[in-house]
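Researcher: Here's the sequence for the chain we discussed earlier.
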Amino acid sequence: MHVSYWAFLCGLFVNCVYGEEKTPRRSTAERIALTGHRSEEHYVTTDDGYVLTVFRIPGSRGPILLMHGILDTSDTWVLRGNNSLAITLANLGYDVWLGNCRGNFYSKDHVKLNATADAKAYWNFSFHESGLYDLPATIDLVLKETGVEKLNTIGHSQGTTIFFVMGSLRPEYNDKINVLLALAPIAHLQNVPPPLSSIIKVAPALEAVLSEAKQYYLLGDSPSGKAARSICNNPLYGYPVCAYGVAFPVVGTDAEEYPPAIHYEAFNYYPDNVAVKSLYHFAQVSLRKQFAQYDNGALENLKIYGSVSPPKYDLSKVKMPVALLCGANDKLSTLDDVALLRAALPNVIQYTVLNWKRANHLDLVWGKTMEKYLFPDILKILARYKNLRK
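Model: Thanks. This is the structure I predict for it:
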């Protein structure tokens, strides 16, 4: 493994180096305003008390909900200004909605819990709760505000995982989805290569250490997040260390689509808060080779699930139309793992490996020329699945 990779992990988990961001962070609303669009902020409270922020760029065409991936926020969809997916859709007149999952920069409030004072209780969630509570609450908000019966949706990475969780556990929501465009979809993690697979193998030990240290979340506004931004924003070595030493080994190498300018803009906010439980849940999915609910241990599983093993998410219940859009060079959402997902889903309406041969995991949200290899497919699918207002 690269020396720089270990140096970065040292910064993240041991907090050996940290500092503030080099430039002020622009909010999602500020980024939207820079493109000449106006935006709205909406708030919704989940059934278990988390308060979520949802941004809207109003438009006359049918609404589209975009859901971000892990370590991410709604910022991801507007990072590249007029070349971003959200702004491209807004320029075409779509009513664009940008969701935020619990715990991130825009959705850290709770009706009772404080993320710091009540950290153990507050951060006791994974992508499971985002699919079970956050996504349905966000969908209901958009449907109520827009008056449509069905919603077009786009997710990236974990932003697709939560749709699969929701469709499995709350199948009535399948009827509220007109189509899901799943960018770099994640459900199975059986075929990820090193170095991520090596980290996953030691995930149980890492989780135990973090639990003993009462560290329930990482990155974002924590010291580990300051460490990440201090290293990755450094003008001398931030790009080579964090792109070539950390990101590319995990997501696939594509310096042409992820040049320094995009890197330094992204690390004004990235990586955002992430619950340790959520990271460990993904590790369990990989280690157990099953897309299943969180494994609490045999005794707790018996209490919670009535069985010693956690139940699998039943993907046969995910009836919503799904388009799978993938990068051949994606080391996180590998084509082999997407094949497992494709075989399990009952209503895949399109499977596309993008024509940019080096397309990696990040290219589907931050790619320099997404308008050439990604946007045409997205726009064609949206044209087929129109969601007209009542």
